[in-house]
Amino acid sequence: MKKLNAKFKLWLSNNQAEGIFGDGKWRLLKTVGQKGSLQAASNALGISYRKAWGDLKKAEKYLHVSLVDKHRGGRKGGSTELTDAGRVWVKAYEGFRNDVEKAVEKAYARNFVGLAK
Questions:
Q1: pTM here?
Q2: How many independent structural domains does the chain possess?
Q3: Which residues are 81's β-sheet partners?
Q4: Is 62 among the domain residues?
Q5: Residues 6+ apart with CB under 8 A from 46
Q6: What is the pLDDT of residues 55-86, one digit of tens each?
Q7: Alpha-helical runs (H) found in 64-83
Q8: Which residues lie closer than 8 Å to 53 by C-beta, 6 or more apart?
Q9: Cα–Cα distance between 93 and 96 in angstroms, integer?
């Protein structure tokens, strides 16, 4: 039997909407930052451009901040880059997620010691 480990899904919500920001939007923004394009990021993550754009618009609406700047294409094509706020959100969520992951690992070790091998 393979060793068990704890997994979790994490997202931020408010009283107006569920799933405002979470792992999916975090991965999307990180990939936009790496690829310089929302189209390339959505392709790399295996999601439709329409879903990617809708997810970003939802996050921006409820966070009251612009996360990306889009530049329409010309001969060389368009580009998408993270705003300063987008970079701040990526970094903050990454720190938050890492803290939660450590807490989950500690809780797992404390509560399942000796049960899972």
A1: 0.87
A2: 1
A3: 69
A4: yes
A5: none
A6: 999 999 999 999 999 887 766 677 899 999 99
A7: none
A8: 38
A9: 5
The pLDDT, as a whole number, for residue 103 is: 97
Contact in structure between 83 and 67 (CB atoms under 8 Å)? yes
Intra-chain end-to-end CA distance of the chain, in Å: 7
DSSP letters along 8-56, please?
Answer: ---EE--SS-S-SEEHHHHHHHHHHHHHS-HHHHHHHHT--HHHHHHHH
For 74-95, b where at least 16 C-beta lie within 10 A, e where not — what string?
Answer: eeeeebbebeeebeebbeebee
Query: Domain residues for 85?
Result: 22-103
Please state, in angstroms and rounded to a whole number, the distance separating the CA atoms of residues 4 and 13: 29
Task: Specify if 73 maps to a domain.
Answer: yes
